[in-house]
Amino acid sequence: MQTVQQAITFCSDALDAAGVCFGHGCDNAWDEAVQLVLTVAELPVDSDDSVLQHALDEGQVKRIGQLLHRRIEERVPLPYLLGRAWFAGLELRCDERAIVPRSPMGELVLNDFQPWYAGPEPKRLLDLCCGGGAIGLATAYYHPECQVDLLDLDPAALALAEENRALLKLDNRVTCLQSDLFSAVAGRRYDIILSNPPYVDARDLAEMPAEYHHEPELSLGSGTDGLDITRRILAQAAEYLEPHGLLVVEVGNSWEALEDAYPQVPFTWLEFEFGGHGVFALTAAELVQHQASLSHG
Ligand SMILES: C[S@@+](CC[C@H](N)C(=O)[O-])C[C@H]1O[C@@H](n2cnc3c(N)ncnc32)[C@H](O)[C@@H]1O
Question: What is the DSSP string of 149-216?
Fold first, then answer.
């Protein structure tokens, strides 16, 4: 017989010894082992210690071993192996059609966009470059008055977003559209635009650990300095925001290149309690005021 605790300890030690990269929702071996074992055991991933003595059956022990082997030998991110990921307290379907959701913007959604958004209760929100839909779907889930558009260029990612929309029963308030950035929503205006676009620069892309090679190519790289897509977003966003609106974009490690490219633009860099960096906000008024430099950045 093997208990949950024994299996977690075994997996955690094996993950540490193998030197796998943590960057897909967990930042340490123990937490990843907990997700692996509890998911296979069909126990909630936020279970308390009372599950530690729970006995695993033979099939579960075998399955844990198989997944652990693939995690270590093939470096597949755990959420792809489990077919699910957790974001802002929600369980979502997750597979190689889109990146594993992990944006710190989940915290922003849970904090009702405070203290950065100063407009009325948001009624229309855009998740630009939505991937599997995590950010926009979490917004719709926690803001029942809000209509949300999810846009992505990649039809495969969008298909996953549609499955997650159905899973969360949000079909009546969330629209999924294939779109090259804003092309499919001409004329619409939003209270808030959130975007976690591709932003990895060429140097970081070349050095990424094996885990990231399982993610869609279109999701990560964005030109030499990582800002090709972000430049286009900055040039166009004002046109799609209400006057009280807010744009929030994640650029990760490319934040310094962004500051260098637009020295006159007053980016506000968000701080997160639970980790994450390289996410900026600009109000609609700031975008309008700096439109000339943003159009030519
Ligand atoms: C870093 S992933 C983010 C996915 C999702 N926002 C998340 O946080 O999980 C970036 C997404 O941008 C999409 N994308 C890339 N170029 C695009 C474009 N020109 N227009 C719309 N989406 C694009 C990719 O297909 C990918 O799904």
Answer: EEEES-HHHHHHHHHHHHHTT-TTTEEEEE-SGGGGGTT--EEEEEE----B-HHHHHT--GGGGGS-
The pLDDT tens digits of the residues spanning 232-285 come to 999 999 999 999 999 999 999 999 999 999 999 999 999 999 889 999 999 999
The whole-angstrom distance between residue 47's C-alpha and the CA centroid of its chain comes to 24
Which domains can be identified in the chain, with CATH numbers?
Answer: 2-82 (1.10.8), 96-295 (3.40.50.150)
The verdict on the CB of residue 98 being under 6 Å from ligand 1 is: yes
* Alpha-carbon span 183 to 258, nearest angstrom: 24
Q: Which of 95, 135, 153, 236 to mutate to test the pocket of ligand 1 (most atoms within 8 A of CB)?
A: 153
> Counting atoms of ligand 1 from 1, which one is nearest the CA of 197?
10
Angle between helices 134-142 and 155-167 (to 10 degrees): 30
User: What value does the CA radius of gyration of the chain take, rounded to a whole number of Å?
Assistant: 20
What count of other Cβ atoms lies within 10 Å of the Cβ of residue 84? 17
- pLDDT tens track for 71-91: 999 999 999 999 999 999 999
pLDDT band at 296 (very low <50, low <70, confident <90, very high): confident
Structure tokens at 71: 């995690």
Per the confidence metrics, is the pTM higher than 0.85? Answer: yes
